[in-house]
Amino acid sequence: MTKIKSKDGTEISYWRTGSGAPLLLVHGTTADHTRWASILSAIERHFTVYAVDRRGSGESGDTSAYAIEREFEDVAAVVNSIREPVNILGHSHGAICSLETSLMTRNIAKLILYEPPLSTGNAIYPPGAAERIQALVDKDERGAAVATFFREIVRLPDHEIEMLRSLPVWKARIAAAHTIAREMRADEQYKFIPERFSRLDFSTLLLLGGDSPSFFKQAVDTVHGALKNSRIVVMPGQRHTAMDTAPDLFTGEVLKFLLE
User: Fold this and answer.
1) CATH label of the domain that carries residue 76
2) Which pLDDT tens digit goes with each residue over 90-103?
3) 7, 55, 154, 219: least buried by Cβ within 10 Å?
4) Domain, as residue range, for 26
């Protein structure tokens, strides 16, 4: 494990494995770096993998006042510490952080964004959902909070939630449950302004599950329309956790894009 300091002094941790060109993995809400375990062995044969714990998760630090902008700075700090062009794979909330990081550093080679939950004008989460999840956390019902997040927000079927429960990362999800509501609110408040990204010219892959909720498709289409060098790949039959439900399919798309 390596720790670096972000712009505001918060310590951000990451794990380095494999060999080859750098690939930074930025996890989504309610997780830590271990959420990539299902695909790690396949990608570290080709890349030096930097798997980060976002602030508030795993071994990274946190602050009492949360702002999503600090997370953009966190990812940029890791990228700049690598000191050579970095590929980035960001999932969900981590995809928003990765996208914004692209405006803060020139050290990006390629970018992969898997279903960033950004608003395209309509509400993306049910009314009161963040408050219900926070109430469960406050009652120390963290497991219920995580399950509620996947059921009501990500909209996974029960059998996929049970599969996620069986994975080692579930413990990390419970430990990070206190970050769910704040990241949901940040997602809803985040304003995507297409013009800000019009000058980005590195290749970007936008991943989408074929069975994912429509708001993810709308978000992916919106980002695609703003970038001049992007493509969309739809993974048939998948939703928001294809790296767990179809790791070979997911890894195949990632490697095909990065190695071409």
Assistant:
1) 3.40.50.1820
2) 999 999 999 999 99
3) 7
4) 2-123+193-259
What is the rounded distance in angstroms from the CA atom of residue 138 to the CA atom of residue 108?
Answer: 39
Classify each residue of 177-205 as buried b or exposed e, where b means 16 or more C-beta atoms within 10 Å of its C-beta: bbbbbbbbbbbeebebeeeebeebebbbb
Q: Is 175 exposed, middle or buried (0-12, 13-18, 19+ CB in 10 A)?
A: middle
In the three-class reduction of DSSP (H, G, I as helix; E, B as strand; rest coil), residue 41 is classed as helix
What does the pLDDT look like over 65-79, one tens digit per residue? 999 999 999 999 999
**Does 201 reside within a domain?**
yes
DSSP letters, 184-198, are: HHHHHH----GGGGT
In a domain, 98, yes or no: yes
Decide: pTM greater than 0.70. yes
Residue 148 lies in a domain: no
How far is the C-alpha of 131 from the C-alpha of 129, rounded, in Å?
A: 5
How far is 45 from 25, CA to CA, in rounded Å? Answer: 15
Q: Give residue 122's pLDDT band: very low, low, confident or very high (50, 70, 90).
A: confident
Q: For residue 151, with 0-12 CB atoms within 10 Å meaning exposed, 13-18 middle and 19 or more buried, which class applies? A: middle
